[in-house]
Amino acid sequence: MKYVDEYRDPEEAQRLLEAIRPLAGEPLRIMEICGGHTHAIYRSGLDQVLPESIRFLHGPGCPVCVTPAVRIDQAIALAKRGCIVATFGDMLRVPGSHESLRQASARGADVRIVYGSLDAVEIARKNPGRDVVFLAVGFETTAPANACAILHARELDLENFSVLGSHVLVPPVLRYLLDAPGTEIDAFIGPGHVSTIVGSQDYAFLPEEYGKPVVIAGFEPLDLLEAVLLLLRQRAEGRCSVEVQYRRAVRPEGSPKARAVLEEVFELQDQDWRGIGRIPRSGLGIRPGFAPFDALSRYQPDLPQDVAEDAGEYICGAVIQGAKAPVECPAFGLGCTPEHPFGPGMVSSEGACAALFRYRQNAREARA
Ligand code: SF4
Ligand 1 atom 5: the closest Cα is on which residue? Predict the structure, then answer.
């Protein structure tokens, strides 16, 4: 527990809070980009112990939340035509346009939970008579492993394996949020895991073009408190730059090997984000050279096409963009719960709605 306990020391937390308080006079709206940070903030109650002038805005960094509904519909369609659909457990509960993979599975679709992309390749290897589709979602963190699955399937000459992908990138969505009228973001806590892959260099545009400071942070309470302190110090000293608090994992250049694998298998493409819409060059598509492993190429035109997402009276899109808090949604905890999610933010533990619901025990406490 050495590397966990040392980032949860209450005395060190108190020391950081005492350093934060005198610098926190003016309001500071900090967007934590990563869903892992949102989860950590609620788990450790940081939103309740920091001065009221510091407000967290939850960013669009939960991969389950931003996967478009049409991708779920396509996975269900492929399962119904006899494919084995393999994916991570959270994806089973994400609502599609009409149903979730879990509901389709209850009606007989062959949907299997995997814990890594190579597990899906292994299912294909063991089932040569069945097409296996891996529903692969995620940011720069998980895309390299999914690229490796494609490379491995090619090595094995597997003809029954393909990837139904929804790979999204952090920098373009931050540009989108900052370019939106009325944006309220003063500063960013940068994503720790994504930055182990891409490095800190990819965020230079935030201070240089938008005048927004960013501190890339780890996932323990002391990491996040130190990140808040570093942002406040930048403001107090009139600085605006990219800083790395998560020095034990993040290098300026990231991981050259992972970046090389991404470059080999994927190319930039326009990408649909659930709750946001299409953002130019904000996703990764599979290169034409790997088309036999691309489910979108392989099974078009039989797949469902884009659907207009109707948020109805709920505010899933605004929550995903950090424009509204989960408690502003009329369904939060009163109909929409992790067991019966109306929207994607209530599914994954990295979703803002699910994280708040879990750590505030009940809707009334969360709304307080
Ligand atoms: S509580 Fe449910 S319906 Fe409301 S924003 Fe969150 S996920 Fe969407």
Answer: 316
Q: Is the pLDDT of residue 96 over 60?
A: yes
* pLDDT level of residue 214 (50, 70, 90 thresholds): very high
**Ligand 1 binding site (Cβ under 6 Å of any ligand atom):** 314-316, 319, 326, 329, 331-332, 336, 341-343, 345-346, 353
The CA-atom distances, in angstroms, between 323 and each of 35, 59, 63, 172 are 15, 9, 18, 17
Give 48 Cα–ligand 1 centroid separation in angstroms: 22
Nearest CA to ligand 1 atom 1: 332
User: So where are the chain's domains?
Assistant: 1-310, 316-367
User: What is the three-class DSSP state of 140?
Assistant: coil
Q: What pLDDT, in 10s, does the model give residues 174-213? A: 999 999 998 899 999 999 999 999 999 999 999 999 999 9
Question: Which H, E and C letters describe 24-85, residue by residue?
Answer: CCCCEEEEEEEHHHHHHHHHHCHHHHCCCCEEEEEEEECHHHHCCHHHHHHHHHHHHCCCEE
CATH number belonging to domain 1-310? 3.40.50.11740
Residue to substitute in 276, 329, 334, 357 for testing ligand 1 pocket (most ligand atoms within 8 angstroms of CB):
329
Q: Please, is 288 exposed, middle or buried when counting C-beta atoms within 10 Å of its C-beta (0-12, 13-18, 19+)?
A: exposed
In this predicted model, what pLDDT tens digit does every residue of 224-261 receive, in sequence order? 999 999 999 999 999 999 999 999 999 999 999 999 99
